[in-house]
Amino acid sequence: MGQVVLTVAKKTLSEMKDYYKAQIKPDVPPSALFVAKTPGSTITAYRSGKVLFQGKNPEAEAAKWGSAEQPVKKKVKKHTYHPPQSLFSSSHIGSDEAGTGDYFGPITVAAAYVKAEQVALLKELGVKDSKHLTDDKIRVIAKDIIHLEIPYILLKLNNKKYNQLQSKGWSQGKMKTMLHHHALEKLLEKIKPEHPDGILVDQFSEPDVYKRHLASEGNKLQENVYFMTKAESYSIAVATASILARASFVKAMEDIEADVGLTIPKGASLQVDRAAAAVIKKYGKAKLDDIAKIHFATTQKAYKYL
Ligand code: MG
User: Fold this and answer.
1) I need a labelling partner for 25 at 20 to 30 A (CA). Which of 66, 227, 258, 287 fits?
2) Do residues 283 and 289 touch, judged by C-beta distance below 8 A?
């Protein structure tokens, strides 16, 4: 059933009431002026001037009275942790992760400290959102980053530990929070006595949720931490971290393939279900605990192949 909402003038509202008077229904919700029912749609007019058309073809009925408002584009939700524009060209730390949506392989988190004077060079080397780069390109750029001696910390949560934490009741959000936090702690320690102008976390949860996870483990947010979704498109430090995290994840997947002697696809898909089934067939299901995030639906789907 479709819906169309129009906003009409008071005058139109009374014209409508007149127009539909033979079809007006006795039951009217408290905030409505009238409800009318035509063969093709139900029309609810509100005192505010909003008119709701519902039914099989609400567009045709609504078109008699005006055109629907264009839905207002949802803006990027800003919160108090939104970074100032100046942060992107300053000496700052960025952090990002990889492997969270992949059934096989670890979660990797990287934090990198990029100085203002390195931003342009990193851009020139092709540092950008790792999602727009092939795995081969990521490998090359990761080497460039390391060659530039960009200070960074890379953490890897292997599957065994992941599955342990998960069965202990940790959400993936909490795991990511603690990984980002520890990566940032270690990096701040590493670059001492230098202080970054700020820290930008590629946002994966509301900052309040992040802080709650930290508090649950007795930790506190560092100073000058900002959160932003799609931060890797704005911050070279986050883009650098995203490449380092991705490169490490890609390497870990190659290691898994070499270990099991099977093709292990990334992500979660039909091919991944089949690969999981092949692993169980070859090694038994206990093997998945070492190489996969076993709470994913993939595990159940793999059983169906056997
Ligand atoms: Mg991210």
Assistant:
1) 66
2) no
